[in-house]
Amino acid sequence: MANCTRRYVPGGTYFFTVRLQNPQADLLVTHIDLLRDSTRLCRKRWPFTIDAAVILPNKLHMIWTLPPGDADFSKRWRLIKSTFSRHLPTPPDIPENHRKRGEKGIWQRRFWEHVIRDDQDFDRHMHLIAAAPVQAGLVKKSGDWPYSSLRKVALEPPTLKTTVPVPSAPNRTTAATPMRT
Length: 181
Description:
Elements: E1 13-19, H1 27-30, H2 32-45, E2 49-55, E3 59-65, H3 73-86, H4 96-100, E4 112-115, H5 119-135, H6 172-176
Helix pairs in contact: 2-3
């Protein structure tokens, strides 16, 4: 079992990736209203701000900002995932370890979170959310994906900084040679 250490920052802004157990499933888009209702119910009980979100068929990415003094994003995800799962039929192919624990096996048990450090980090993760439907091969332009909060937002390309300068000389062998650290 993986040893997962979470970083809790009260009032922090976080980027999350949450996945379904079955990578071929499309439950998140076929039951989008249930997911929205589950999230709305959670926000009513345990408030937080959704800065950006994209829902793909088998995973979702979100950026949340928690209220000052509150860092319990795990409680919120537990409520969203359990509410969503409770209202779906049990899939026929539940792994035995999920069945023994009384789980439906819809979600992966864990999720990935990242504390947003600064404005540049925030911008990079906004671009990740905007680009996710294109990278998943679902649409050609990110604005065409209906389950994204960034559909109508024009984002400037992030300014990426490298730690090693890239040679600009016409000598391609120099420019293509990997730098050693």
